[in-house]
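In response to reviewer comment 3 from the previous cycle, which asked for concrete evidence that the modeling workflow produces usable outputs, we include below a single protein chain processed end to end. The sequence was submitted unchanged, and the resulting structure tokens are shown without manual editing.
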Amino acid sequence: MEKSVSCVVVGATGRMGQRICSLIAESDEHRLAGATESAHSDHVGKNLQEAVGLPYDDIVIHASLEEIPGDFDVIIDFTFPDVSMETIRFAGSKGKRAVIGTTGFSQEQLQEIERLSSSFPCVCAPNMSRGVNTLFKLVQEAAALLNEGYDTEIVEIHHRYKKDAPSGTALRLAEIVADSYGRDLSKVGVYERKGVTGERKPEDIGIQTLRAGDVAGEHTVVFGGLGERLELVHRAHSRDCFVQGALYAARWLQQQPNGLYDMQDVLGLRS
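The workflow returned the following structure tokens.
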């Protein structure tokens, strides 16, 4: 049997963090080597079992990656941009592999990630789901075929707790469409319509955001022509599809040189 991949989870007591730790516990290919939380969290200093009921009475929650005892293979981080930037800077300084599923990075932060990744192997993707990454590929192919006479609109819905909008996945879908059409998304992206807006411009790419309840994530890409409409839809029924993708990426990353990758690379979908 191959050696299991030892993982440290940043934000381990959050919604995604807890699910990552839970699925690692069920995996023969991964092992939890450490956990962190914000220094302000009441969970710091407790083990994961007493903090949130996860089956890890031997994993103490630390306030930073520097405090994690022993060696480990990869850091997994699904938190917030500022937190993830600290993770990436740590990984760059230590040459540690990292899987980053955080969304909402600024352009400046993305540029810093790209620069720092020359010092460590990093998978950074707005969505780790294999299904969503297949959707990315299908949208690219559909846009290439429906590049004249079709209007493109993207609708996403997530749970009430999501802090960034539109979702990173919706923005990535819009970027794929814009690239296929040879358009600049910053100029043709339409994020809200209200009042008398006039006719839709042919070059517009609409991105609309919904927030409700506990929806794990749903994305619909509409190609609307005269007399017909093509819709490509992905629905996440739980967070597990994102976690499974991240764990797959963590294994894949063990054989990769320094550099910045996304799930298209991991899944072999890069054109």
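Residues 130-236 form a domain with the Dihydrodipicolinate Reductase; domain 2 fold (CATH 3.30.360.10). We consider this sufficient to address the reviewer's concern, and the full set will be provided in the supplementary archive.
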